Every structure is written in structure tokens, then in C-alpha cells.
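INFO  loader      accepted 1 record
INFO  loader      residues=97
INFO  predictor   begin
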Amino acid sequence: MARTKLSEAEIQAALAELPGWAVQDGKLHKAFKFDSFAAAIGWMVSVAVYADKNDHHPEWRNVYSRVWVDLWTHDLAAISGRDIDLARHMEKLAGSQ
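INFO  predictor   done
INFO  writer      dumping C-alpha cells
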């Protein structure tokens, strides 16, 4: 995916395909809930492998079975196609929570 800033229309079109995601403070945001701490951490590790391979890393935090995620492309200070790609991959790994 390209590191280019998405238009508002492109972001809204992507959000229509990403249940539970929203734009919050200029970033893609979602709170995931898992069945346990182990499930949340396992998901985070799987996401981390993909993110590192693609050199595109999330801002996130975990408390027990919940993970809060914010995605944006830091060098653009905007949402890009790379953020949408990572959000889609997170959904796939989460089984569309």
C-alpha cells in the first residue's frame, strides 16, 4: 500500500467495510475485546509480526482482554492506505470481532 494521504471520501468508504472502526482525533480507532488476556496478547503478537514486516506499526494499549488501537501514518500525519491495510489485517486476525 502506498504512503499517500487518503481523502475523506476514501476514508469513509473504507470505514464502511471496517465494523467498529471510526476516525478519532485524526486517526483510525477501534477497541477490540477478546475472551481472555492470552487471546488479546496472542492477537497482538500476530499483528506485530505483520506490522513489522510491513514497517507500519500501530499505536495501541492493552488492559486484560481489551486492546485499543489507533492507526495513522506518522510521516504524513494523516490516515493512509497503509492504515486501512493494517486495520483490515487486524480484523482478519480477530475474526471480525
